[in-house]
């Protein structure tokens, strides 16, 4: 039993070891791109929507509704960013039921990369909304004494995002392996159902926390006018 997909070597490409984390990340990305292209290839008003297009529209509208509750106001790029995070983490976790698939979200390197993207996205959205001076001013609010604490808080958010997602997915896989060894004829179905439920919850938590962090960086300040996000 391996604790991380990083330990599983799939193949070697030009002398570079491709482990399960990298390989299955490519699989998830390719799956999302291909499915999205197939569903939206006839996206025209005169073409009646099929059930797959309706399903995709329900998912997008659901993500848009959750973002609107946390970050009011139009924000097309926030929908793109948070929606992509949610779909990638959700599909990675849902494919856990496929025999042989190792979710890349069970690797600390994947969750750290996702958390780093949030750390980069927060100041980008903040600067777009408030301007560079207005965003940097948030680090000295309510007083200059809070500067080191606000910086530490910013980095602790990224660390908590990475550890939370990695810990939940990795521990779930370990517990499933232990239970399958104890009762292999009973626990597979139960663990599959729990894995699907836990995977969706973790994807929702990760995406909604990223949205909350971005919303806090773009929230209007009494002394600083806010620009609407595109």
UniProtKB/TrEMBL annotation:
Matching Gene3D superfamilies: ATP synthase, F0 complex, subunit A
Q: Read off the InterPro entries from this record.
A: ATP_syn_F0_a_bact/chloroplast, ATP_synth_F0_asu, ATP_synth_F0_asu_AS, F0_ATP_A_sf
Q: Which Pfam families match?
A: ATP-synt_A
Instruction: Give yes or no: UniProt keyword Cell membrane.
Output: yes
Bilayer topology: Multi-pass membrane protein
- Location in or out of the cell: Cell membrane; Membrane
Its Gene Ontology molecular function terms? proton-transporting ATP synthase activity, rotational mechanism
Q: Which GO terms describe its cellular component?
A: plasma membrane; proton-transporting ATP synthase complex
* UniProt superkingdom: Bacteria
Principal localization reads membrane
SUPFAM superfamilies noted in UniProt: F1F0 ATP synthase subunit A
Tell me yes or no: is Membrane among this UniProt entry's keywords.
Answer: yes
Q: Which residues cross the membrane?
A: 12-35, 78-101, 107-127, 165-187, 193-215
Q: Please, one GO biological process term?
A: proton motive force-driven plasma membrane ATP synthesis
Q: Which PANTHER family match?
A: ATP SYNTHASE SUBUNIT A, CHLOROPLASTIC
The text of the family note is: Belongs to the ATPase A chain family.
Function description: Key component of the proton channel; it plays a direct role in the translocation of protons across the membrane.
Q: What is this protein called?
A: ATP synthase subunit a
Please spell out the taxonomic lineage of the organism that makes this protein. Bacteria, Pseudomonadati, Pseudomonadota, Alphaproteobacteria, Rhodobacterales
Identify the gene encoding this protein: atpB
């Amino acid at each position: 039993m391996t604790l991380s997909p990083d330990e599983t070597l799939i193949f070697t490409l030009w002398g570079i070891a491709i482990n399960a984390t990298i390989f299955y990340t490519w699989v998830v990305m390719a799956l999302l791109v291909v499915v999205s292209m197939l569903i939206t290839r006839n996206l025209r008003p005169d073409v009646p929507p099929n059930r797959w297009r309706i399903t995709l529209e329900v998912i997008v509208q659901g993500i848009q509704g959750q973002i609107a509750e946390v970050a009011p106001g139009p924000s097309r790029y926030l929908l793109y960013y948070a929606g992509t995070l949610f779909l990638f983490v959700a599909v990675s976790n849902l494919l856990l039921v496929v025999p042989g698939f190792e979710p890349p979200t069970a690797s600390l390197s994947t969750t750290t990369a996702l958390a780093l993207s949030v750390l980069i996205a927060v100041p980008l959205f903040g600067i777009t909304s408030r301007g560079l001076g207005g965003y940097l001013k948030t680090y000295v609010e309510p007083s200059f004494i809070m500067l080191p604490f606000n910086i530490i808080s910013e980095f602790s958010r990224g660390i908590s995002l990475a550890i939370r997602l990695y810990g939940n997915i990795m521990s779930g896989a370990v517990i499933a392996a232990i239970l399958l060894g104890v009762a292999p004829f009973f626990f597979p179905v139960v663990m599959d159902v729990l894995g699907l439920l836990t995977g969706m919850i973790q994807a929702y938590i990760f995406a909604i926390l990223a949205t909350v962090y971005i919303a806090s960086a773009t929230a209007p300040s009494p002394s600083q006018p806010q620009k609407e996000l595109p």
